[in-house]
Amino acid sequence: MKIFLLVILLSTTSIVSFARNDIADYSVIEAMSINKISSAIGNDVSFFFAGQVHSKVDKVLGEFQSNKKTNSFGKSDKEACQWVFASAMKSLRERAIKEGGNSVINIRSNYKGNMTSSSTTFKCGVGAIIAGVTLVGDVVKLNKMQTKTQSQNQQVKSEGKLIINRDLVKKTQTKLNESGFKAGVADGLMGNKTLQAIKEFQSLNSLSITGKIDRETLDALSIGYGN
Fold first, then answer.
1. Residues 181 and 211 in one domain
2. Could you report the per-residue pLDDT of 33-83, keeping only the tens digit for each?
3. What is the pTM of this model?
4. Are residues 117 and 203 in the same domain?
């Protein structure tokens, strides 16, 4: 009798284990900072999650969804979710190229029909053997010449080295916060939160990830400078 009850208990535990479906949010910047993932996604298409700042849209090419799954067996939930996120982002990149776009904007999570927006995280569901991510975004053509021209004009004004003063740091913090990047209080001081927010912004805008305020980052944030 005891053996029979033990068999039933183990069977029930197994069924519950395989039936699990844990949904959680994971960091976009952390996933994108993994070399294998960033290499797979490439840098020929820019990605902007919901609420992030981008240059003027010249042409909207359509809204597209990428629904991807991967084997999660033997992986941590985080590792499985990062890899399936990479697969979904790669799919959006390929769609953008196919449609003739250069960017995907307003990227949101749509796990099992539940649309959620975040500028810094994506939603992932993990079962016993499968992990899944669904992303939705708008494929567009952004006016990148506008940013390039602005950068050239600003560089002529700067007459050499960019001077980072407290006012410029404060403007950067304010713009980052408005765009969904948590830079902390806009006090003009470069703290850890500001540094991390800059890195996240740079990563998602296909910029050099330095954590520093430079011309390229200021141009992408549409912040003027003329020192």
1. yes
2. 788 888 878 888 988 898 887 888 999 999 999 999 999 888 899 999 999
3. 0.65
4. no
